[in-house]
């Protein structure tokens, strides 16, 4: 079988290298220093996160990826101020984070719109919460327009598709004009086509406003397509494995999914997240220990 020779994921074109140089000269918006989180559970102490360190620069797009249970959701909840941490600190614009605040917008996987409010009212609700009173309809409409839903401003959530609901959730989060947008698998519940469209929308939105994004995902392609850098975590305990600079140039487009830089990055993520089978057992850690639940003489046994 012939193999395609891929470049190293560390190889960067001149343009990509220059982009990273400029990006790292921008101010640091969010800094995570020595962050740790332990949970006490009936089974004992669980170290969900250990010594996590990273910085995001202004208008940077960082994706966080890792196997199930590596602490992605715990990390984003701590960044949002919804969960306390056990050690280390989170600094936003150099100030410690000690709870939720309008400087951080959140978009979750589940649809979190108020079903009894229209699209416009949902967007305005966020603004009222952040005490930006006196907000005009017009301002809400600008955010709704940004996510391409002007025609649906007076619709209720049940009248919208899944993708449209997530666009409203993004508009609502952005209307507060946060410094950072925290997104926890926001497109995880969408079908593949809608998900691809939402990724393109998000990149368009990000290009047009001054926002730094931390985006949690399980999906390797999604992470490479969206991110400037990808923070790769490992599980038990959740620790940083690597912070990868994505060598795929901007502007991003779906044709790049098969480019050598994209495939090389994907191969690296695969190796980090789904390591080869263990040498001792020949089985990967998540091998299922299947127990036979049907009698041996079951009439369909012979077809397997
Ligand atoms: N409230 C809690 N009490 C006890 N343990 C918890 C709690 N929340 C999370 N954990 C544990 O912390 C670890 C990290 O969980 P977390 O949900 O952050 O991981 P994740 O990477 O988001 O997982 P997934 O990708 O499956 O959603 C897991 O081992 C989990 O069991």
From TrEMBL:
Please give the name of this protein.
Answer: NitT/TauT family transport system ATP-binding protein
Family membership, please give it: Belongs to the ABC transporter superfamily.
Question: Could you tell me the keywords of this UniProt record?
Answer: ATP-binding, Nucleotide-binding, Transport
Q: Which Pfam families match?
A: ABC_tran
Does the keyword field hold Transcription regulation? no
In its keyword annotation, does this UniProt entry include Cell division? Answer: no
PANTHER family for this protein: ALIPHATIC SULFONATES IMPORT ATP-BINDING PROTEIN SSUB (PTHR42788:SF13), TAURINE IMPORT ATP-BINDING PROTEIN-RELATED (PTHR42788)
Q: Annotated Gene Ontology MF terms?
A: ATP binding; ATP hydrolysis activity
> What domain of life is recorded for the organism?
Bacteria
Ranges for domain ABC transporter: 30-260
């Amino acid at each position: 079988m012939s193999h395609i020779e891929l470049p190293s994921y560390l190889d960067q074109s001149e343009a990509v290298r220059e982009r990273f140089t400029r990006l790292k000269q921008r101010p640091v918006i969010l800094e995570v220093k020595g962050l740790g989180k332990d949970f006490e559970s009936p089974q004992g102490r669980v170290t969900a996160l250990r010594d996590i360190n990273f910085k995001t620069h202004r208008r940077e797009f960082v994706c966080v990826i890792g196997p199930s249970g590596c602490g992605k959701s715990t990390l984003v909840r701590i960044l949002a101020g919804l969960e306390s941490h056990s050690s280390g600190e989170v600094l936003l614009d150099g100030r410690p984070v000690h709870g939720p605040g309008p400087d951080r917008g959140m978009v979750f996987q589940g649809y979190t719109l108020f079903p009894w409010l229209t699209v416009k009212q949902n967007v305005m609700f966020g603004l009222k919460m952040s005490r930006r009173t006196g907000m005009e309809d017009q301002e809400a409409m600008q955010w709704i327009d940004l996510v391409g839903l002007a025609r649906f401003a007076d619709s209720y959530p049940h009248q919208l598709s899944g993708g449209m609901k997530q666009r409203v959730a993004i508009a609502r989060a952005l209307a507060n004009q946060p410094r950072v947008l925290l997104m926890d698998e926001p497109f995880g519940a969408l079908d593949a086509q809608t998900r691809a469209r939402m990724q393109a929308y998000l990149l368009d939105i990000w290009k047009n406003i001054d926002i730094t994004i931390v985006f949690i995902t399980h999906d390797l392609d999604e992470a490479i397509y969206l991110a400037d850098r990808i923070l790769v975590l490992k599980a038990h305990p959740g620790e940083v494995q690597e912070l990868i600079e994505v060598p795929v140039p901007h502007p991003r487009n779906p044709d790049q999914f098969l480019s050598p830089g994209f495939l090389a990055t994907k191969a690296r993520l695969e190796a980090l997240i789904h390591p080869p089978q263990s040498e001792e057992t020949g089985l990967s850690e998540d091998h299922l220990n299947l127990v036979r639940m049907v009698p041996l003489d079951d009439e369909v046994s012979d077809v397997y």
